[in-house]
Amino acid sequence: MWGLVQSGSITKFINNPKALVIGDVQYPAKIFSLWSKSELEAIGIYEVEFDNTNKKDEQWYINTNQSFAFAGGKITASYGSATAKAHADTLWTQQDSDDGDLPSNKSVGDVKTEGLKTQLIKNLKSQVANELARTDWYITRNTEKSTAIPSAITTHRDLVRTRQATMETQITNAADTPAIETLYTYVNTADEGDPEVIERPLGELPRLES
User: Does one domain contain both 135 and 188?
Assistant: First the structure.
């Protein structure tokens, strides 16, 4: 991506090489591949440099739009400060009711917008349900045929539920969005010199070996 700078200001962005007119001169698209950086800049065409310093993971944050500036002989595209997504639910308030914004099927104190914690716990419950569903047939067979459930299966299902409870507590107790992000961030926890151990503080649900 390039920008055309005229009289010290960016006047046009060029996403792909194409023919263009600058002043009274028409230039072919091939200048973008054949000309050097300095040759392009001599006619006011600068390649955009992207600064992602402030850009954060969009799972946890809302990034600003990029802003473009020409300074120091270069065009830079950068982000402003990201805003953390709400970690807690937003509730309908009495003010919402007084303003006439409260839906007829909602009451003051009901959830207006789910926060990250609610969304993540819902996702975790879905993962747990999928894992348990893999062995539900043992439960059905036991109910219908009185066939004993293997102890390994019972142990695994108990471990899944225990781990689920621990993980839900970790999510619930996270103080803010950065703390939630930390729970889900994989890092190498091995001691220096040992083989890498990549894991996250939240841990994982037990998986039944096939």
Answer: yes
Domain identity same for 110 and 140: no
Residues contacting 161, CB < 8 A, separation 6+: 128
* Structure tokens belonging to residue 178: 């950065």
Distance (Å, whole) CA 3 – CA 135: 59
Tell me if 32 is assigned to some domain: yes
pTM of the entire predicted model? 0.82
- Tell me: the pLDDT tens digits for 43-95? 999 999 999 999 999 999 999 999 999 999 999 999 999 999 999 999 999 99
Contact assessment for residue 169 and residue 92, using Cβ atoms and an 8 Å cutoff: no
Inter-CA distances, 3 with 16, 38, 41, 63, 71, Å: 11, 14, 10, 23, 13
Is the residue at 179 inside a domain?
yes
51 φ, ψ (degrees, to nearest 5): -110, 105
Measured at the alpha carbon of residue 206, what is the angle toward residues 204 and 210, in degrees to the nearest 5?
Answer: 130
Residues paired with 187 in a beta bridge: 199
How many domains is the chain partitioned into structurally? 3
